[in-house]
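Budget justification note: compute hours in this period were largely spent on complex prediction jobs such as the one shown. Inputs:
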Amino acid sequence: MQHIFNGLVSGSFLAMLALGLAVIFGMLGVVNFAHGAFYMLGAFGAYLLLTEWGVNYWVALAAVPVALGLFGALVERVLIRRLSALDPLYNFLLTFGLALLLQDLVRREYGVQSQPYTSPLTATVDFGLFTYPAYQVMVLGISLVVCLAVWLVLSKTRLGVIVRAATERPELTRALGIDVGRYVAPMFGFGVALAGFAGVLAAPMRAVNPLMGGDLIITVFAVVVIGGLGSIFGSVTAGFAIGLITALANLYVPTLSQTIVFILMAAVLLWRPAGLFGREEAFT
Amino acid sequence: MILSRLAGRPVLLAAGLITVLALPWLIYPPVAMDVLCWALFAVALDVLLGFTGLLSFGHAAFWGTAAYAAGLLAIHYSLPFPLAVLGAALAAAVLAVPIGFLSVRRTGIYFAMVTLAFAQMVYFLANQWSGLTGGENGLQGIPRELFGLDLSDPFFFYYYGLPLVLVGLWAAWRIVRSPFGRVLTAIRDNPARARALGYPVDRYKLLAFVLSAGLSGLAGGLYAISHGFASLQEVNWTTSGKVVIMVVLGGIGTLWGPGLGSLIMVQLNDFLSTAGFDGIDLVTGGVLILIVLLFRRGMWGTVVDLLARRAARRAEARAKAKAPAAEEPVPSGSA
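Corresponding output:
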């Protein structure tokens, strides 16, 4: 039971990162390689606010994603927009360069060893059969709420309708008098903010170091390939599912715990190349 | 196309050969050897990226597997090093069959993500299988063996390794220029049409992937022999990224460009680390961003472009001088 919880908690990070990746991909057609770096910046942002200015965790949880979101929107305006008309691989390469740059900047400043960040909640929750750290319970709850909220906004509100229309038929949406370009930078910023939010949530649980995002992003890539990158629902579901499966593998077949996500990806590619919830690519 | 004509020019070929032969005189010999290995690696990736239109972000899997395979063959069977390197190339090609089979089911950006993920899987396996690979410590003490010859001097070893690399480069050139390579280019430019013409597109892509992996393995195996060790660094995703940067910097789809790109990147790396500047990724990341924003054709592509444009302008001027009465401008044709 406790392992299932562990799996869901690590799955919630995967889900939030996959969600941000899917939102950005949906709006811009760009796979953001720097997503892991933004996640890392989120954790470092929380760490710096605490150690340099004594800003507590809860403030950081709100402030860091906003700051990163603005930074992300700026990145979109200054860099990514220039390549938007070209093959999306160029933006993949661009964000890869950005990831290297951001990661190395932080590493030069703080080294590769992990920085400690004390948990804001030290209590445990008693579930009868077992007790569980309250902080982890909170992370799970928050991420579920966030994923659900994003999904609701995209599927039920006018903003969501516009974003989805712009995703699927940008030309037609433009012809209907909607300024698609206006939504691009905020959506990119929002995706980045989600990564930063996940980073802040991760800071008290995971080792805060410059490399924390680089390895994670590859797992997230595998997750979105499994879920279907075009599908928000698929990405989030796959995120939680992979977290759970990895935790169970860790328990029963520990040798597979690191590789099972890639084995699953291989199976999905064989069985449903477009991903479990994905549709066939319209443009190949 | 002016590009291929230029690449076939004997003058250019001779210049390239002289550069390669003179390299250990010009720069520190072990670094020259690194340039050689990375150049072959980058050219191998260009066969896939430039001529088949598939961006593999997981070629470290093949370079790294070959590095381990060459090391194991040299350590446990004390094979002469060219045989160990060829065996390593074979191992990389064999690994590429299942990975390629699954990866070519997706294209474009997905292909990059899938190959990256599979390479990460290879990385975890190498880390876990520490009895074979030495795990975090890497595989150390790989001997350089060739019929009892003394290969310890890196200056001379460069020339022992060179033929292997030249064979690999020649193979890459042959692949690209062959009818098979033409089909690959057709698939890159218009997959639907290639399929309609009756070409089994996925099988062509898979073969290109396996050949590219084999050549990468040739490079990776030689790299491990020349360094005397193979580490997890070789299978890490940063290695995949590094070789992609070399290709993009030099110029995608030019074959010469990736060679040039690797020369510059390895030299830059060496220069920065001897200068005590600790921030190589900072520089390479910045370089990649600038290249992608400003010079998407890479260094080689940009220069060839400029030359072609100049030649076209001159031809136009000449044509005008010859027939001043003609109203129609002569089409330049080489864009």
